[in-house]
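Lab manual, section 2.4: Encoding a predicted structure.

Procedure: take the sequence of the chain (174 residues), apply the prediction step described in section 2.3, and record the output as structure tokens. A sample record is shown.
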Amino acid sequence: AGVAVLLKQQHPTWSPDEIKMALRNSATDIGATRTEQGHGRVDALATAQSLQPPIAYIDIQNRNQTPLTFIGTATASSFKEYRLFWGDGLNTNTFTQFHISLQPVVNGILFSNFDASVMKDGYGVIKLEVTNTAGMTSIDYIPLVVDYIGFTEPLNNDVLRAGDLLNIKGYIFF
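Recorded output:
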């Protein structure tokens, strides 16, 4: 928090999102997985020396509906582009690009109609990279669960008596 306050004092016109991105972008990788370390350890000197970063924020609209729509913010004071990637597993470093745009987005739709069937069943990650004309890149990730087979009935708390007929309902996506 102290580094954020110093950065705000140094750059009073920066938004909270720009300060957040500067902290993320200048963090030092400590060699752990993304789910263990996040973006890394704060590097106060590198953060103080950073230029105005692009803003990258991604979320999923209506998580239980397919195809998926990704919403968020991809912008910069000198915006160049944003790219979207998918990867299998929560801590993957292997991503496949599926979208690029030369138009900034602020609190809007980044991409709609994503077909998650390209991903393996289980956990996955969508990555957003936003780049400005100076070559600076900000990154955000959103985890998701790809579930091709599941049960909707019986529920975990359903009470059944011996001899009751058991209705099993579920879904399979191909």
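Check your result against the sample. The chain is about 15% helix and 40% strand.
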